Amino acid sequence: MPADSLVKITDVSFAYDERSILKGINMEIPRGKLVAIMGNSGCGKTTLLRLIGGQLKPTSGELLVDGQSVPDMSHAELYAMRRRMGMLFQFGALFTDISVFDNVAYLMREHTDLPEELIRDLVMMKLNAVGLRGAHHLMPAELSGGMARRVALARAIALDPMLIMYDEPFAGLDPISMGVIGQLVRKLNDALGATSLLVTHDVQEALMIVDYVYFVSDGQIVAQGTPDEIRASADPFVHQFVFGEADGPVHFHYPALPFAQELMGEGVGGR
Amino acid sequence: MVGKGFAALLDLLRGGGHRVNDALQTLGFAARFLVMLLVYSGQSFRRFNLTIREIYFSGFQSLLIILVSGLFIGMVLGLQGYETLQRYGSSEALGVLVALSLTRELGPVVAALLFASRAGSSITAEIGLMKATEQLTAMDMMAVNPIARVVGPRFWGGVISMPLLAALFSAVGVFGGYLIGVVLIGVDEGAFWSQMQGSVDFRHDIWSGIVKSFVFGVAVSLISVFEGYDAVPTAEGVSASIKRTVVYSALTILALDFVLTSFLFRGV
Lengths: 271, 268
Hints:
The complex is a heterodimer of chains A (about 270) and B (about 270).
Chain A: E1 5-16, E2 19-30, E3 34-38, H1 45-52, E4 60-65, E5 68-69, H2 75-82, E6 85-88, H3 100-111, H4 116-129, H5 145-156, E7 163-167, H6 175-192, E8 195-200, H7 203-209, E9 212-217, E10 220-225, H8 227-231, H9 236-242, H10 259-266
Parallel strand pairs in A: 3-8, 3-9, 6-7, 7-8
Antiparallel strand pairs in A: 1-2, 1-4, 4-5, 9-10
Chain B: H1 2-39, H2 41-46, H3 48-59, H4 63-85, H5 94-132, H6 135-141, H7 146-185, H8 189-199, H9 202-229, H10 235-264
Helix pairs in contact in B: 3-7, 4-5, 4-7, 5-7, 5-8, 5-9, 5-10, 7-9, 9-10
C-alpha cells in the first residue's frame, strides 16, 4: 500500500458495553481509490463507517483521516471534517419533507453563502450526474428505491467531498438499478478525484468496480486483496462468500442444541 | 417455602429498582437534552424562518380546534353560570364568571391540553420518524446539528404559539359566554361587560394566565421534542413515544397548574 493514505486505521477495537464488535482492525485507504469492505450482516462493517465519521469512538487503537486523529477531535473539528465527507446511507435517508432539489441543495445552503442562482446551477449539475435532472421537483415519497438512492448519492457529493462513504448502496435494488449505482460510484470517485469506501455484501457487483477489498468476519479482517486476487483466493471463507454457498466456515445454522436432542424435548419446551 | 417467598420479594425489589433506575436515567438524559437545546438555540434563532415555519405548523394550524373548543367552552360556561347565578339573583355577574374562569384556568389549561394532543403528538411523530429513517443521523454526518436544525425550531415554535393560542381561546370563550348569556338568555349587556371590566384585573388575572400558558408551552414543547428524539427508532417505538407525549403532557399540565395556581393566587 502506498504511504499516502487518506484513512489509516491501526489496531482499532470497538465494543458496545461487553459486546465486542471490532477486534484489532488494521486498514488503509489510499487517496483516489475505491475500497470495499465486505462481510456478512452484523460483522461490524457499518460500525467501522461510524468510527471513521466520528459518530462512535473506538475502545482502543488509532484512527486517522487526512492525518488527523478522529477520536481526539472536538465537536467543531469533527463537524469541519464531516463537511469534507459525503455519506450515502443504507436507505438513502433523504429528508422527506423537502423536494429532491432542496435535498441536494441542503448542504450548500447550510454550509455556504453561495447565491441562490449558483446553487441552482450546482444542484442541476449534481442531479445531471446521477441522471435525475428531470426529477428535481419531485418529493422523496414519489421516487422509486433506485431513484431515491441516486438522489442521496447526488446529495452526498454536493460539496465535492474528499471521502465518500457508502453504507450498503446496493441493498434492496433491482439488478438494473444496482448496475447503475455501481457505475456511478466508480465514475464519481474518479471524476471528483475523491476517495471512496464501500461497505457492502453484494460481492459480484462490488468486485466489478473496486480497487481493493477487505473481508471482515466476526470483527476481524480475514482476507484482503485486489478483486482478481479475491476471485482466485483459496481461503474457505472468501470462497464461500464470493460464490454464495449456504454452508462453509460461516454456518447456515444459528448455534443451537443438537437437533435430535431438541426434538426429544430437551430444548425450548423441556427447560 | 420461605426461600421461594424471599426470591419473589427479591424479584419484586429488583424490578422496582430497575424501573427507578431507568426513570432516573431518562430524566438525566432529558435534563442534558434541555441544556443542549438551550446551548444550540442561538444557532436555531439565526435561522428564524425555520421557527416561523414551525409556528405556522403547530400554532396556526391548531387555530381551528382551539377556536371551536373555546367557543363551546364559553357557551357551556354561559349556560351553567347563568343557571347557578340566577338562583342568587346575580345573573349580571355572568360576565365576570366567564372571563375569570377562562383567563385564569380554562384558557391556559384546556388550550394546552388541546395543543399537546394536536401539535405535540405530531412533533413527536415527525422527529421520531426522522430518527427511525436515519434522517437525524444523516444530518449529523453532514455536519448539521439536528438539535439546532430540527429540535430547536420546533421547541421554540411551540413555546411562542402556546400563550397566543391560550389568549385566543379565552377571547373566543368570552364571546361564547356573551352569545349565550346576553344574546340568547337576555342578561343585561351593559352589566355583563362593565362588571367584567371592573372585576378582571390585568396584572392579577390576565398576566397570571399568560404566565401559566407560557409555562405549559415550555413543558409541552419540551416533552414533545424529547419524546421524539428519544424514541426507539421502530414503528412500535414511535407509537409508544407519541402516546407518552400525550399522557405526560396532560399530567404535567394539570400538576403544574395546581402548583402555579397555589403560587400565583396566594391569599386571594
